[in-house]
Amino acid sequence: MAGMAQAKAKAGSGAKAGSRAKARTGARAGSGAKAAGAPAGPPTAEPIGRVLDSTAKLLSRAFDQQLAAAGGTRPGWLILLALKQKRHRTQQELAGAVGIEGPTLTHHLDAMEKAGLIERARDPDDRRVVRVELTDAGEKLFLQLAKAAMGFDRRLREGVSDKELDAVRRVLERLRANVAPG
């Protein structure tokens, strides 16, 4: 009989320990949430993917507004920046550098050429290749937009230390690696 009392006591303390564990994880007795890794209820913090998505959208809109106030657009800025980084780019190289598909890039280049910001010319050695270069007006707009981009970057970094920025970069690189194909 003493053995049965000890077994009941052990079973009771095990049940209490199990209840404490369920209380810590948020599971309720009889909830059916017994699978390992199953959510125990609503998240206590916003999922990181959602935080990143909403932050990226907010930053994109704010940057677009900063560029618009300086007389430009983000695609235009990316094209001007790529042309400043490497002169005499071909249209194909430019598409790769900016991350814009060929037909969309052509649309932007048409508008920029019409505005006098760029010039396009066939490569004399290979007539299939179109080279793109900045004009003086394109150089001037580049400087205006560069000033706006640097101002936005200063605003973004306000109150954030270099050490914190390095930590953010490392975390973002890790998150990117976690979802990269392959």
Please give a structural write-up:
The protein has 182 residues and is mostly helical. The chain has a domain at 72-179: Winged helix-like DNA-binding domain superfamily/Winged helix DNA-binding domain (Arc Repressor Mutant, subunit A, Orthogonal Bundle). It is 65% helix and 9% strand. The protein contains 7 helices and 3 strands. The chain has helices at 2-25, 48-69, 74-85, 91-98, 102-114, 136-157, 162-179, and strands spanning 89-90, 118-123, 126-134. Strands 1-3-2 form a 3-stranded antiparallel beta sheet. Helix 3 (74-85) packs across helix 6 (136-157). It starts with a helix and ends with a helix.
Question: Can you tag this structure with a few keywords?
Answer:
7 helices, 182 residues, Arc Repressor Mutant, subunit A, three-stranded antiparallel β-sheet, mainly alpha, elongated
> What composes the largest sheet?
3 strands, antiparallel
Question: Spans of 5+ residues with little confidence (pLDDT < 50)?
Answer: 1-34
Total E-strand runs: 3
Structural class computed from helices and strand pairing: mainly alpha
The CATH architecture of the domain at 72-179: Orthogonal Bundle
CATH class identity of the domain at 72-179: Mainly Alpha
Mean pLDDT comes to 83
Q: Name the overall outline.
A: elongated
